[in-house]
Amino acid sequence: MATFSRPALHLLLALLTLFAAHASLADQSELEARIEVDAHSYPWSPIGRLNAGGRGHCTGFMIGERKLLTAAHCLYDSVSGRWRNAGELHFVAAYQREDYSLNSPVESYQVSESFTPQHSVSPENAATDWAILHLTKPLGLQTGWYGLQVLDQELLERLSDGSAVLLQAGYQRRRSHVMTATFACRFVGRFANNAGIAHDCPVAKGDSGSPLLVMNHGRISAVGIHVVQARMNDDPIAGVLALDAFRPEAAAPSTRVAANALSDHWGPGQRPASGRSKDRMPLKAIDGLLHALGFLPRSKTISSEERQEAIKTFQERRKLTPNGKASLQLLEQLLLAQQKSPSPDSD
């Protein structure tokens, strides 16, 4: 494991105060409102369940053929007081309802030696709560992977004016056999000397290590790793380790080794290779958004004809070319529309 020194950690108290939480701080109704997505379809397929020695799970996400990111606290066994061996860890990409078809043992992993296991899930650990895992199998060829992106001022402005959208998806413990997501997360602020990002999407146990994603200009990228649950003025929020810290040109000495390991992962990610099983449209998410926006009725079964007509109607109302086709571009258009016109009946 790489050796790092602890960076200075200062909470921006004028903005928010964080309190570590091992139990979910989000309301149960908010968690249940998360939309179940099809883990077998991109852009969800790079996310998976990291099973840790038969003692629970976290979420992780692919950033290369064999490389993934998660939270460091997921790899520490607090019962025995030690870091788990790589052989105790197993990653199941695009996991859904007992489908383990894309799985790999973990060959090795890196964490920051500045991470303090005794503090576990806490604001004190947020800036160092990261882990880079290397798999024995190139699952990324099947699932695709995310590129890394900095949540800079330009992107924040696009989020503010509704032309980009933040998303969170993972395997919360109460629904651990399906992937659920929340769309249109709201940026709340920064913490931990700007190493952390706070947002308002509901999270729970099991979501640790999940990506905070941004959809912008037709591209989906990871901007952070979920590491802590928190409160701001008694409202639950999620605390994310910003990936900004791993930019090679901006990395502090404590993160330089990790930054070097991630240096070729900035920019566009990679969809699953054409013809692969996970190279298919995210129809479940598209149907959920069409329903939330009032273009589809609540139904467990949607025919392709119903979907096509709903898409055409949406496109016509948005003054888009009405081709009726499901696509990643359509997913982004639906996400932006929901962000600007949220529906209380959304599921």
From TrEMBL:
Species of the source: Denitrobaculum tricleocarpae
Taxonomic lineage of the native organism: Bacteria, Pseudomonadati, Pseudomonadota, Alphaproteobacteria, Rhodospirillales
SUPFAM superfamilies per the UniProt record, alphabetical: Trypsin-like serine proteases (SSF50494)
UniProt-recorded name of the protein: S1 family peptidase
Keywords associated with the record: Signal
InterPro entries: Glutamyl_endopeptidase, Peptidase_S1_PA, Peptidase_S1_PA_chymotrypsin, Peptidase_S1A, Trypsin_dom, TRYPSIN_HIS
Span of the signal peptide: 1-23
PROSITE patterns the UniProt entry points to: TRYPSIN_DOM, TRYPSIN_HIS
GO biological process, alphabetically ordered: proteolysis
Keyword Transmembrane: no
Top-rank taxon: Bacteria
One Pfam short name: Trypsin
UniProt keyword Transmembrane helix, yes or no: no
Molecular-function GO terms, alphabetical: serine-type endopeptidase activity
Domain Peptidase S1 positions: 25-266
